[in-house]
Design goal:
heterodimer, A: alpha+beta, Aldehyde Oxidoreductase, domain 4, Aldehyde Oxidoreductase, domain 3, 3 domains, five-stranded mixed sheet, 30 strands, B: about 170 residues, alpha+beta, Ubiquitin-like (UB roll), DNA polymerase, domain 1, 2 domains, 5 strands, about 15% strand
Chain lengths: ~775, ~170
Amino acid sequence: MITKLTQNIPRKESWDKVTGKAVYTDDLPITNHYCARILPSPHASARIKSINIQKAAEIPGVKAVITGQEYSVLCGPTLLDRPPLAKDCVRYAGEPVAIVVALDEATALQAVRLIEVDYEVMPALLSPLDSIKKDAPLLHPQISSYTHVVEDIYPIEKSNISAQYHIRKGNIEEGFANSDIIVEETFHLPPSDHLAMEVRTARAEISADGKVLITTASQSPFTVAKDIAKAFQISPGDIEVHVPFVGGAFGGKANVSLEFLAYMASKKVNGHPVRVIIPREEDMTSAPSKLGMDATIKIGAAKDGKIQGAKFEFHVDCGAYSDIAPYMTKAITADCTGPYNIENLVCDSYCVYTNHTYATSYRGFGHLSYTYCVERTLDQLAKKCNLDPLKFRLLNAIKPGDLAPNQVISTYSNTGNTALCLEKLKGIIHWNGPQITNIDENIVRATGISCLWKAATPPSNAVSGALITFNSDGSLNLNTGVVEMGNGGQTNLAQILAEKLKMDINKIHVTLNVNTRLNPEHYKTVASISAYMAGNAVVRAADDIISQLKSIGSQVYSCKPEEIEVSDSKVYCIKAPTNYTEFKDIIAGYKTEGGASIGEPVLAKGGYMLKGITVLDPKTGKGRSGPSWTVGAQAVEIEFDKRDCTYRIINATTVMDVGQVLNPNSMREMIMGGMAMGLSMASRENYSYNKQGRLKTPNLRTYKLLHIGQEPKYKVEFVETPQTDSPFGTRGISEHGIIGMPAALANALSLASEVNIRELPITPEYLWKQRKEKYDS
Amino acid sequence: MIKYYNDLSVIELHVNGEARKVTVRPADILLDVLREQLGLTGAKAGCKNGDCGTCTILMDGLPVKSCLVLAVEAVGHELLTVEGLSGIAPIQNAFVKYHAFQCGYCTSGFLMVCHALATTKPDADEYEMERWLESNICRCTSYQEIRSAITEVLDTASRQTERSTYATIS
């Protein structure tokens, strides 16, 4: 049986996951492991005057206590600005200050509580807008001396700005001069959390000859090896990284952090295996979160609704350390308009330090934040132009030949078809303009829409690889470095391979765990580009198999290699298809009836390197920052109760240009998962800090997520505009469902409540306060 | 200053139909003992605070959060973990069929709640189903997939109950 791309395939790891057999990092045996716990800082900003570890070290069973004073290591994926353990000062509440290594967790925890730290508390900066004030204290006075890991990061000396990116396209003065209607809005979006169900954890051990083994819940196993090597002067080849199943990540496990602590802990106890575990509360406060944002959006349009110009200013709240936030700021800048053609454009984006928990990549890589601000403004503008917001978006949707903000020329291949997504959405939701429907005297129903787009912003030299070996029954082993964290990446790759080899996917086995010693390097399982990068590697490995089989086959059937066909796990000459050889009889070399041996074992490989990605011009933002966009259009329908401002989310719809449908149910559910996360975030998730800068909601009792029964009915439909350089034309979709959801929800609720919503999350309390202000004034 | 009781006692737990002896401190929670001493790692720690449900197991057929149960409290009760469903509970097949998981971390907990509902209240309506399942959190799926899976099992279960042929797995 030949598996097609468009067939619905259950995940390869399905039965592991429904029987409890799927092993995640902390499911591995612990009997030989010491346990390490961290001491988090209780202050958002403080000088560490002294640390007394004596009482902690004296507890029986405590093997070591480590403080930041012992190391002068700085880490970070863009700018080396973060000590793995706080040194001299703390910059956010939750920052790891010390680690205790003990025989077991209870002992470690007991000792952690006995560490005495003398802090001198300093004023905390809790908003990027405060951080950029002239007299603001500097979080990183030494910012100019930090090592740049990437070339395109531009910190501003003696400031709290770790990176800045700009767009100058067209003539903005002319754009606004030609505008009949101009809308300017300001937005405030708080940080929030990834909240993967698996709490982050990492293990380390060091052999007597210095070989390091790290086992971790990470999206970036190959980066873990490189970063630890760099930080502690070890040869990267001496570090082996294992990643078992990962229990959700959403970008939050792309950063390298606990791995450093695990290494330091094991090093201190002579290489003994150590597991660093953190409770949910520390996963929320100590480990990185999603960025916050303050934005000013100004867009002008002619009376007919054609956008003439736009000016955006973004202040990204990256928290205490930059991590990958500079690159999220870059991604925000490069894609700042959404999928619209805006010829005259100015965008100034700043990545700003605050004393919040530092931010790392989060599903959508910043796109959901700017999309919210832009799409809310577009709705306001459409209203002032007296235009249907959907028609208004259609009128301005980016088309082939238009220039993206980074001045890349848009094509159907590199962008997809935004207008078609909008047209299809219009039909599905029976859109007939913005309408408020009265359900009864108190309840009204309204729908809001939003477009989305996102390009990945990987480095130009990012690599991926695929290795394929055979089993004696003719089945294949597909070996890649893609992490299985819920993305279904392995199943997608197997399906691409099955399509390419015209074979049954059940005869393809995949590697569900990553071992950097065995698997070929895959950049990181991030940015929705695994199917693109690893997929291209798989396609090349499949070509390698076909070419080897054609070569052996041509000898077996005494014909030309191009006359050999490979299909349904069989090899034959096209002149005589019934006289075939099954894979099992040819993959280890072919033996003739006479006993002669032909060929050799088939071992295949495919490598892929991302090329043609350039830095953005620091002044104009011109440059190719990613391989391609994925576009879509979304709608959210709500029921709003005018009495108490409560609401129910009734329907949520997405039409996405996926390039080519691959495993349709799986694709649909990946997009639905994104939509659910977006609605949860937009309706209730908030990193609210108290005046001292401590998180008020550091657990699942106070930080609420969407539960079953609160979800709308989801609908996902596809548009297929192939991306020509991607396997079979597929596009990245894993993150994208989240991007327009907050905006669509806000647009629906603004219509229903008559509140100009400019914040997140949209709680009934927020709506009530806004309405009260409106009616009181 | 908290007083720590670190002395160990041997207790016997009935897990998945077998009697197992374990050595515990008074403060040890059932979740840790199942995972660390019996290797039953299907139940996961998600918050150790009773808020997320990833550690849900069945105690005498009803769901409990094993992070909120002391190991010593579990003596004398029948415990069922996801490993005890043995791959033959209808809900397991339904989860595969409807893609009711992505990362799989919350799956064991959801399966146990669903299984308990299907066995103890096979005629549960949508309202009851939601009340049972809202104790758990899934961050990856949209819940629609889990809803489809449990709905099919409940429908199947109630039809079979009418014919009095529904068999429970213990």
